[in-house]
């Protein structure tokens, strides 16, 4: 038996706004959308091709407090330019103990943390937020 990831589910207070941020940040496509669920993917086709990544933003009223709901490490083509673009879209830098300066720790508009790598293909090292 073979398993594959269907989607990454992200709990969101406002799935529409959070999906809009990530659609622009990743330059992906809206696959499905409603006020309670937004599915985005690198491919606009349904069903999604095998191996495609999708993210489902789903409305929740559950407050998980400081617990992380998910996290991305993003591989940029130009870290300073991509960080500036993400900030213009509503992301903000956060202070984090990353161990070195090859990463920029950020938060999306709902406070979900993610890192922007220094260069494409850089593998993440264990780090503490």
What does this entry look like structurally?
The structure is a single chain. The chain has 129 residues and is an alpha/beta fold. It has 2 domains: 1-61, 2,3-Dihydroxybiphenyl 1,2-Dioxygenase, domain 1 (Roll); 71-129, Signal recognition particle alu RNA binding heterodimer, srp9/1, CATH 3.30.720. The chain contains 2 helices and 8 strands. The strands form 2 sheets. Strands 1-4-3-2 form a 4-stranded mixed β-sheet, covered by helices on one side. A 4-stranded mixed β-sheet has the order 5-8-7-6, covered by helices on one side. A hairpin with a 5-residue loop joins strand 7 and strand 8 (113-116). The N and C termini lie far apart (36 Å). The model is unreliable at 121-129 (pLDDT under 50).
Instruction: Determine and state the CATH class of the largest domain.
Output: Alpha Beta
CATH architecture type of the largest domain: Roll
Major sheet details = 4 strands, mixed
Share in helix: 10-25%
* CATH fold-type name of the largest domain: 2,3-Dihydroxybiphenyl 1,2-Dioxygenase, domain 1
Task: Report how far the terminal alpha carbons are from each other.
Answer: 36 Å
Q: Tell me the number of structural domains.
A: 2
């Amino acid at each position: 038996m073979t398993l594959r990831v269907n989607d990454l589910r992200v709990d969101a207070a406002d799935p529409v706004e959070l999906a809009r941020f990530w659609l622009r940040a990743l330059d992906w496509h809206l696959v499905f959308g409603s006020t309670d669920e937004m599915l985005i993917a690198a491919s606009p086709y349904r069903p999604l091709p095998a191996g495609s990544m999708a993210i489902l933003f789903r409305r929740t009223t559950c407050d998980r407090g400081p617990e992380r709901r998910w996290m991305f490490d993003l591989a940029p083509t130009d870290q300073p330019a991509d960080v500036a673009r993400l900030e213009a879209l509503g992301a903000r830098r956060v202070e984090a103990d990353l161990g070195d300066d090859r990463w920029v720790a950020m938060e999306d508009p709902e406070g979900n943390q993610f890192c922007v790598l220094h260069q494409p293909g850089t593998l993440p090292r264990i780090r503490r937020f």
